[in-house]
């Protein structure tokens, strides 16, 4: 496997300081949250400083596109087109930063009793297709994330992958909320590894979306990484709810250890055959 490891910046985390943390803790890249202080209107005056910091420290970049108040699946045309236009502007910012990937929430806040499942799904698919092509033209890969209780959670994201060419970001904690145990997540990886380009790695102790440091919960990451094929190429972001550099460093170390263990287990199995 050819894997780069990064972490997602959290609200209240200065992007420039995040670059320094990534370099000091051995990360390959940072996934910059383009919301709050990282939203384009706030980050624009500092984009050259961020570009310079990334280049000087030899750190790569991906981004997490804004979500929540942005509704790319709205059944109302003007709302949906406005959301897509805002996401396009953030993709432009991502390209300016040299980002290789942009995580997208393929969701909607549409009032469920008023709008049928098919209509909502079609609207999301239309927006994802458009944004995927728009980003590709700027050298950025859109990765659609599984969102629990969303239209395309892990139990239904296969439909989105079948109807578009978009890559997938698999969030391990979100998958647990969907009711998948380690075996269920590993089965999804085995089935869709050719489309999974990016991971949000976070630990949980139960079915809640806790975003704990790697090793602080019960997710069997060695098993999940072991489900990836030998020739898999992609990115793994630690998405943990902390601004503490020590926890980020620990998560990076555990990811590397678990990747090595998964490779070793695979080698041992192949040697026994």
Automatic annotation (TrEMBL):
Coiled-coil annotation: which residues?
none
Q: Which Gene3D superfamilies match?
A: Divalent-metal-dependent TIM barrel enzymes
GO MF entries: isomerase activity
Question: What's the domain of life for this entry?
Answer: Archaea
Keywords on this record?
Isomerase
* Limits of the Xylose isomerase-like TIM barrel domain: 20-259
Would I find Isomerase among this entry's keywords? yes
Record-linked Pfam families? AP_endonuc_2
Please give the InterPro entries that the UniProt record associates with this protein: IolE/XylAMocC-like, Xyl_isomerase-like_sf, Xyl_isomerase-like_TIM-brl
What is the protein's name according to its record?
A: Sugar phosphate isomerase/epimerase
């Amino acid at each position: 496997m050819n894997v780069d490891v990064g972490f997602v910046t959290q609200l209240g985390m200065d992007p420039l300081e995040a670059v320094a943390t990534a370099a000091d803790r051995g990360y390959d890249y940072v996934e910059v949250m383009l919301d709050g202080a990282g939203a384009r209107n706030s980050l624009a005056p500092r984009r050259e400083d961020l570009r310079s910091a990334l280049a000087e420290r030899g750190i790569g970049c991906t981004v997490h596109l804004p979500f929540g108040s942005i509704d790319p699946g709205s059944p109302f045309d003007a709302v949906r087109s406005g959301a897509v236009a805002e996401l396009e502007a953030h993709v432009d910012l991502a390209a300016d930063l040299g980002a290789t990937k942009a995580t997208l929430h393929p969701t909607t806040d549409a009032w469920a009793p008023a709008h049928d499942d098919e209509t909502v799904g079609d609207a999301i698919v239309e927006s994802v297709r458009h944004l995927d092509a728009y980003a590709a033209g700027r050298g950025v890969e859109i990765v659609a994330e599984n969102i629990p209780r969303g239209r395309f959670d892990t139990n239904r994201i296969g439909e989105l992958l079948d109807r578009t060419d978009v890559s997938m970001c698999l969030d391990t904690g979100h998958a647990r909320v969907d009711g998948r145990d380690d075996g269920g997540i590993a089965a999804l990886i085995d089935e869709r590894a050719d489309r999974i380009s990016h991971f949000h790695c976070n630990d949980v102790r139960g079915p809640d979306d806790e975003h704990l440091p790697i090793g602080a919960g019960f997710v069997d990451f060695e098993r999940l990484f072991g489900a990836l094929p030998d020739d898999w190429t992609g990115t793994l972001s630690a998405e943990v709810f902390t601004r503490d550099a020590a926890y980020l460093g620990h998560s990076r170390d555990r990811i590397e250890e678990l990747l090595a263990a998964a490779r070793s287990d695979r080698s041992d199995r192949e040697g026994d055959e």
